[in-house]
């Protein structure tokens, strides 16, 4: 009886127009979609096509996407690197995805692009990973990784520049960009490598004329809307600036930011709702947040008054905006060289975009042994 029902169900599905089947599949969550790749060769081919992936991604995008956390789960005193999903509504951790770690070195995870991340170290490891499907693709090492191996053997300092990952929005091609300062320490000179997924090779492009910050956790490039962004070092106490790399034209451009001079440890940038955001912590505990609009004009979106909290009084380290739930609740990331803490800001008094923060608390329902020490990034 069971086999008969199964055959009848298959016959019904086979009589449906494939366009209708594809439309139904696009409305499902990722886990059942992965299981349906085993139904037939046609379904498998459809689900794995780039067109289906882009259509499904467009359907499932949410104003409050889940958050991808990278860190280590400690079991029997052994740390295991992994990625976990944090539900933006429930505040609970789900979906453990252990990261392949071919070496003993600490791994770094890029920001996500269409749900994909790049996982790497500075010398040997490099691959693309999809936490939802557990698909991964190991990639050839960049020139800078090979150079770092040689310099390590010669007891020389290695380049610590971080990898950028994003998408050319005109061609929908993904690209990895490794921008690093020249070893000769020449003023205003960088080297840039771009990975071509079509040919599976790295190639050089003309680098930026301006050196980049590469010394701390704020040196990670930020991707948004077809471009990657880096901070440039402050020179002679002048304003902090950034450089932008257009992933389609593959050219660099220096950009002004709407923030007066502050110390480099008080300024930060992030991506929120596919827009670049920059903010700085003032000495009075107030942090202004600016967003870059599609016409490349900066817009002041939020102002956090943290003077009533220990973050405003003692830290001086800017908070990175991760998600906005409503007018009185937002998710922020506080990080230093030693640790990262995900916090819920609530019970704020709001007036014309200004938030007087009354309550800040850790956002995990069950933090237990979970240690966040690699990455926090929105899953778009």
UniProtKB/TrEMBL annotation:
- InterPro entries, per the entry: F-box-assoc_dom_typ1, F-box-assoc_interact_dom, F-box-like_dom_sf, F-box_dom, Gal_Oxase/kelch_b-propeller, SCF_F-box_component, WD40/YVTN_repeat-like_dom_sf
Can you give the residue ranges of the F-box domain? Answer: 10-60
- Parts of the chain that traverse the membrane: none
- SUPFAM superfamilies the record matches: F-box domain, Galactose oxidase, central domain
The record's section on Gene3D superfamilies has: 1.20.1280.50, YVTN repeat-like/Quinoprotein amine dehydrogenase
Question: SMART domains this protein is in?
Answer: FBOX
Return the PANTHER family for the record: BNACNNG10540D PROTEIN (PTHR31672), F-BOX PROTEIN CPR30-LIKE (PTHR31672:SF13)
Q: Mind telling me which NCBIfam families this protein's record contains? A: F_box_assoc_1 (TIGR01640)
Protein name, entry field: F-box domain-containing protein
Q: Which species is the source of this protein?
A: Brassica carinata (Ethiopian mustard)
